[in-house]
């Protein structure tokens, strides 16, 4: 198991290195003078020269690359172009908001998705299955910002149950939790449909297995077969897909963050791109990739831990 | 085999038919009786309806299948009118089943002990430790080494033969009146096959379990059965004691089947014998085998042969115009 995790971590490091090099190359492939792109056409030659020196752009490309990677290895993601603050510090400030939002959305998605998927399987071929299928597809099809706006309208404006904007005051856990409900629901709902379809498909496959027939041949109750046996197999089968989904949740919550005016990685990336703040863009993209890869490793580890066949092969 | 003939049958089917999707018949008008302590074999080609027949006994047919017939009695319960609750009650104590592929018959991600315990769900009052002891005893009875250690094992850690023993142990735990074995040795090698067959015979001898064994392997049937039914295109075309069927087969299909048995083919034969053509869809006019029969006559094409009893042997029946004349 330790060897397995070490191998996966090494692979992850390689992936992140490739991402870093690609990001670096992208900076250099942007047409025109990067200083002009960054500082705008009305910047003076002196400003550009100072910027060039600050970013190390006056040196040979390979030297720049090795410097960039060397700094990365030390955990230095560079400085924000405008505020001159360390990028890493800025990212670490918003990261908790992003992670809690992703986790909360994930809880919605998995809890409701698995429940709906199971109900659909128990009613396989009947109207209940059909209805859940329709609802699931609707959930997938409706963009999360529409759900965000409508849930904002209903629960924050009309009913006034939950706060409309913000993430809650720092340190006030109750307020933060309340501020999390609506955004996580809006983000998670699309995944509810997705997860329920996945669970349904994987469960139908599991229910066709020979061992299900064995259990039936001994009169074991159908609900027991569904929830004790088929569900475990189905969850194992869809775990890696769900992990990719979680990686997506960590990065794809831009709309929810904008609509609910929450700080977060998605909004930070968006703002950085719009203001051509390249060190910040590279920093957020790298951290996002890191989170994604970490999810993958975790999913593999959980699969290995749950599946005796994989576990014993390690 | 006169003693079992006197007892009330565990399984009594009369004119049972199974149709898929309302159109495709798989089993047509089957009469079958299995008495306590009797081992009955069903042989036939793939697609002859053997497995459908076996699955129908426990109500394990897919939803698309429909079952009709005159009389269908399992352990004293009418199966034609049985609802889900009745079926659940019968599965296990009345009849248990062993399947063809032991490697997939158990969940790959749950331990053997956990799954066998699950099958004992009826004994809710019994403590887990007691169930464990019963399971260990059953595993020991079927000759599994280190039965206590096997409780924590996963199916992939055991060989096919071992898993088939576990399946038999599961059946043992239920003490069923009827054990249905659907190709129980097809997935196993020859030595394992012999051991599994021996185990099943012991089960009959010690517990008086009736066994219905489905196979296309004639050696298996000859080895273990008291009585044999030959199935073709959804019908039973010949039935009799194992001696009669193997020594004096009456139906041309049975004879053709024996001619194809690899063990019986003379060495030096240049070509392996086959039955030309393939199993037709059941339910045509005339004899279903007419199209492939070497002795086909005019009447075979136009008129379905009746179920006739041999004059010399009242336990020998066949469905062929020629065997009557």
From TrEMBL, chain A:
It is found in: Cell membrane. The keyword Transport applies. Residues 95-303 form the ABC transmembrane type-1 domain. The keyword Cytoplasm does not apply. It is a multi-pass membrane protein. The chain crosses the membrane at residues 94-122, 134-161, 173-194, 234-260, 280-306. Pfam families: BPD_transp_1, BPD_transp_1_N. One of its GO terms (biological process) is transmembrane transport. InterPro entries: BPD_transp_1_N (IPR045621), MetI-like (IPR000515), MetI-like_sf (IPR035906). It comes from the Bacteria. SUPFAM superfamilies: MetI-like (SSF161098). Keywords: Cell membrane, Membrane, Transmembrane, Transmembrane helix, Transport. GO terms for cellular component: plasma membrane. Belongs to the binding-protein-dependent transport system permease family. This is Peptide/nickel transport system permease protein. It comes from Mycoplana azooxidifex. The lineage of its organism: Bacteria, Pseudomonadati, Pseudomonadota, Alphaproteobacteria, Hyphomicrobiales.
